[in-house]
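Forwarding the complex inputs:
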Amino acid sequence: MEYDHILIRYGELALKGKNRKKFVDKLQQNIQHKLTDFPDVKVKRTQGRMFILLNGQAPEPIMDKVKNIFGIHSLSLAIKVENELETIKEAALFALTNAEKINTFKVTVKRINKGFPVRSQELTQMLGGHLLSNTETFTVDVHQPDIEVKVEIRQEATYITSSVVRGAGGLPVGTSDKTLLLLSGGIDSPVAGYLAMKRGVQIEAIHFESPPFTSERAKQKVIDLAEKLTKFGPSIKIHIVPFTKLQQRIFQETPDGYGMTVMRRMMLRISERVCQKENILSMTTGENLGQVASQTMTSMNTINEVTNYPIIRPLITMDKDEIINISHAIDTFDISIRPYEDCCTIFVPKAPKTKPKKDRVNYFESKFDYEPLIQEALEGIEVIRVSDQNKAEDAFEGLF
Amino acid sequence: MIYLDNSATTKPHPDVLQSFQAVSTSFFANPSSIHQLGGQTEKLLLKSKEQAAALLQVRNDEIIFTSGGTEGNNIAIKGIALQHQGRGKHIITTEIEHPSVYEACKSLETLGFKVTYLPVNEHGVVSVKEVERAIQQDTILISIMYVNNEIGSIQPIEEIGELAKKHPKLFFHVDYVQGLGKVPLTLENSGIDLCTMSGHKIHGLKGTGLLYCRNGVKLFPLFHGGDQEHKIRSGTENLAGAVSLVKALRLIKEREAKGSKELAYLHHYLREELLAIDGVSINTPEQSAPHIMNFSIPGLKPEVMIHTLGKQGIFISTKSACSSKDLDESRIIRACGFPADRSKSALRVSLSYDNTLEEIKLFISKLKEALTQLKEVME
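Prediction (whole assembly, two chains):
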């Protein structure tokens, strides 16, 4: 006997009324997409439930992939057997003995097929007795069991599930349009991207590079970070903006202390143009209130002045350790701390203004016509697409 | 040629050589160089750790590439001893360890460490109870091999791991060089802190190996320098070696999944045939790794048999290659309680997944032939 399918439960989706179908379709599509490496595995829907049919594939790698997909409340390994008492007993025993780290259990029976000869309550007792007499270490706890062996007798077959694995929660990525994530390479921005994805948003990323002041490796870092995020959604398009000329000019033209503010405003201006071109409706940043000079309330107010697009700031009120915890959980921390300069750490004024005044900034910006340099940067954008499939780079193919 | 000395070393797999050459040709830059060539090789290095970690089901940062088994064992044992000597100076190991563990422990004795060398039973297996009894307040390390290299006995690593979990102050090191690809071992949640593996025993290249070092375990490095490999093993990374090792690891895992039944059958066949020969005593216990068969022909100098078979293109060995030049008796077989005529006349056949039944049959018949001839001479 072995587990032959995975039952998928989607909690919050149930609340979405008329849009429900759209959400569920998207979820099914996302799951199918994540499992393209497993051609035998099929994703099916019947009567308001979603199943992954394993068709002989071992369940562990599938569970590992699927538990990161947003929009899933929980998952359970399940066995489908015929509506036959002895087989049901055997399957229930399998479900119990294959669960890990448990001491107590309870059996629940749902008899949807009223033609099945044994009534629910009687069957519950029968199965409980069968499990107890065939095992040694388990005891029954009907109030707070470590595991609930659920038996559901339907017309076509009986389904048996046991351990419930928490899903990633949230909404299926792609059901809330797109955002442009400002991805620097630090700890915060990938976490912000992850949290946006959790609410169903698909992301594209934008990164500003200033070679030769920043290196190839800083860029690689951003690519690696984006790749980590694809674990939670579809492939990600990264727009890499050549920023050197514009950045150098900003720091030449702007009095010390205001350079950083102008630079941030330029980044938002360029990001907004990319949004317009790519039909993206918002931007997402890893800004965190009070963390650095550009993230004070006054700074954000002054910097935000240049765009009307909504800016999603998932980390805005978090503490740094909360952010770091998430970055460990999503496996981006070790990449983020690679020690390469990015465009935000070069040319930093000794004392950047924490309360930059709007009129001053506007005055400084008016002294030089940046438009041609902005245009040049936009035209020089390099687009890279990363995904979590076929991860082995072509260059490394066959080596392992 | 019939090669039956796979526990000494194995023939490199052509794909492994190909990977080594491809990496040496195309990715030769130093991963620490900051130019893009260095960036690329650094990426390849990270990738190889990722792949190795996936194959062993551990974290990427728990992989340390080494030059092989001897280095892995030395880094682990001396690294723990030197780093944690403030906590205690007692080490537990067994009498049947490979010289790279045994001698490393002996050397630490000269630095003031106390070492308990646990005995084994007639099957070459250490008792978990005795390990438990040997643990003292100041014990900092238990180092026990999984599969013995001379007789193939399997140590109760899982149980010792559980025991080690109950003593959080000490570390548990496993020399897994002979077991890799033959006897499965789970590292995650096993109580194992350090685990040595080698490339050339699994059709990889000499000079490649890895040490699993559980996240959070601190070692005093034996090589200081540019802080490569999490500062545990400085020195420009042998990237081609590392990549080729990962390839060898992947290939052996595939062979293990497909060929373990056949190998066990060959092993069983070999035992039955040897048992039927008059004058042959088997030293490998019933419960053993599926690739090592050690036997003695009391009264016959083992090297005479090695040379007789060698002339006919059949290659086996006396005890372990690492100490074969020392023509004295086998420390391991002696430790199992066998008399000197057994421990001085031991021969070892060690298989790989490439060996066939025909080869074993031929070996047996040549062995019998040789025995008849030699007996005439001896009498």
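Chain A has two domains: 5-169, 178-388.
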